[in-house]
Amino acid sequence: MGSNPTPRTLPEPTVLGTTPFLNFAMWLIKKGNRESTVERKLRFLKQLKGSPEEMITQVLANNWVDKSKANAINAICQYAEFLGFPIKKPDFRVYNNREMYVPNPEMVKQFLYRLRSIKLRAVVSIAVETGASAGEIWRLTWKDVNFQNKTLTIRGVKGHRTFTYSISDELTTLLLQLPKTEDRIFNYKDADNINDFIEDYRKRLAKETGNPDFLKIHFHTFRHFAISWFYFKTKDIVETQRFARHCNIQNTLRYVHTVKSWIKENEFDVVYAEDKTELTKYLDEGYELVAKTEWGYCLRKPKALT
Q1: What pLDDT band is residue 263 in, cutting at 50, 70 and 90?
Q2: Cα–Cα distance between 284 and 286 in angstroms, integer?
Q3: What is the arithmetic mean of pLDDT over 133-144?
Q4: Domain extent at residue 283
Q5: What is the pLDDT of residue 296?
Q6: The pLDDT value given to residue 15
Q7: Are residues 50 and 146 in the same domain?
Q8: Same domain membership, residue 295 and residue 218
Q9: How many Å apart are CA 192 and CA 189, to the nearest integer?
Q10: Helical residues (DSSP H) of the chain, grouped into ranges
């Protein structure tokens, strides 16, 4: 009879910033990874314990969004390769439902006005008005804000371009209330903390409204909403690409399908009026008022047969 195989032993991951993680970070940099990418991969590993196989199990059992799970699995597989014990990547597909979740405008408004912290409301408002990611907002400095012109410059990361946005009076007021204690506007420890701080509000709103869809909201959801909402109002894919700061328009085209799930575009032309002047104009053109929200008026009319 053969003996039982001796289980392989792997170096135990230690505190972030020490061996073997420090050596792993240097290995990633030599492989061509940017520093921001290395930091993100190390943050995933910091939250996990045991061997790479055990880490994979922990990730799949976690309630992270699909994209975070996929990124974490990629980091673990690279870590296993670095340790000299490559593992097979599990068959896990990002966005298994094939569609990103985008809340409707009323849900976003409810979420925004449920936030009690001025700082957190400012952070979410920036994401809603500009489509900035958590990492981009975390990097914002006071030099990026022009209070006189009411503009905010978002400096793109991870393939996003840099763009200057006009911001609302409400967001300007929120920013003016924040203390200027350092160069960066928001003193969160890292970008991941921003998502952590909205976790409790997701649960509260789901319970208070009876709408479980609030549990689907993560911070990056607000970027998806901002881009979808911009396209919904403009129906201009090129302008939407500029707004989203996408280098590749194929990334922008994903949002066209999302907007089509909000309205039945095969039946109606749908427009959005931001004030009563626009409302009157569209009513004169034969549109009917569908809904009034805190952000304006939604109107529609049947498409003409062609």
Answers
A1: low
A2: 5
A3: 94
A4: 268-302
A5: 76
A6: 40
A7: no
A8: no
A9: 8
A10: 21-30, 35-46, 52-61, 66-83, 105-114, 118-130, 134-138, 169-176, 191-209, 219-234, 237-244, 249-262, 276-284
